[in-house]
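Fill in residues.
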């Protein structure tokens, strides 16, 4: 004999249970919401990683410069960075075959940074950092990849033998810094007597120029590379502006 209490419990179970159709509809709704929100979450995470590592790299490199100054004096008195090249059969420098000035790098930078690996490749000193980022040092120019997986290792085109043009990656996958503390000129005023700074060579001090320069401005179409993008992010407090013109 079924008691009244048992019948009541059974009725409650039937009233509170979900049908298979209801479960499937709920899961479908969850899937649609996830599909709509995941791209935005991924993009925001990518932006956050870039911002954090850019600020960290800037701090790390300038701490290294400060430490080097303790050993070698004011950076404005350091050796000038000398561009080195392989020589042709006649003993002349071949500008298409640069050699990394490893002596300069090993003197002023290498002892003061923490790296998992440092190597010389294609005329550049390549630094691999513990957080997965990568930087290449060539002359006064420093390119920084927040995500080392984006670093192509200066791959060469099989047909031409030339290093593949990675201009499209500038301001998107790598960001340009500059170190020129000894060149006192109008064009170099944002770098003279400074440490490692976002590329600001020949900058007029306005955000408009950072965005609009046809050669190196932070915009989609440029004739060279988007070197000014790093400075645009810096003046925004190391945050990528909401209207950042490059799709990351």
């Amino acid at each position: 004999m079924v008691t009244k209490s048992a019948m009541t419990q059974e009725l409650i179970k039937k009233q509170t249970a979900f049908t298979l159709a209801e479960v499937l509809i709920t899961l479908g709704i969850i899937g649609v919401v996830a599909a709509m929100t995941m791209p935005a979450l991924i993009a925001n995470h990518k932006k956050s990683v870039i911002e954090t590592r850019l600020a960290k790299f800037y701090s790390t490199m300038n701490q290294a410069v400060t430490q080097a100054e303790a050993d070698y004096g004011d950076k404005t008195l350091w050796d000038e960075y000398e561009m080195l090249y392989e020589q042709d059969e006649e003993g002349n420098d071949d500008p298409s075959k640069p050699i990394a000035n490893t002596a300069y790098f090993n003197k002023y930078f290498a002892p003061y940074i923490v790296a998992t690996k440092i190597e010389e490749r294609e005329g550049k000193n390549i630094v691999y950092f513990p957080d997965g980022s990568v930087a290449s040092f060539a002359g006064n120019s420093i390119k920084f990849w927040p995500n080392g997986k984006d670093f192509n290792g200066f791959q060469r085109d099989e047909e031409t033998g030339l290093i593949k043009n990675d201009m499209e990656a500038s301001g998107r996958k790598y960001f340009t810094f500059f170190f020129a503390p000894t060149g006192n000129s109008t064009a170099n005023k944002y770098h003279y007597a400074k440490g490692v700074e976002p590329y600001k060579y020949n900058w007029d001090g306005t955000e408009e120029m950072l965005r609009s320069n046809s050669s190196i401005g932070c915009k989609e179409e440029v004739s060279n590379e988007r070197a000014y993008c790093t400075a645009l992010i810096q003046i925004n407090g190391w945050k990528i502006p909401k209207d950042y013109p490059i799709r990351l």
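The radius of gyration is 27 Å.
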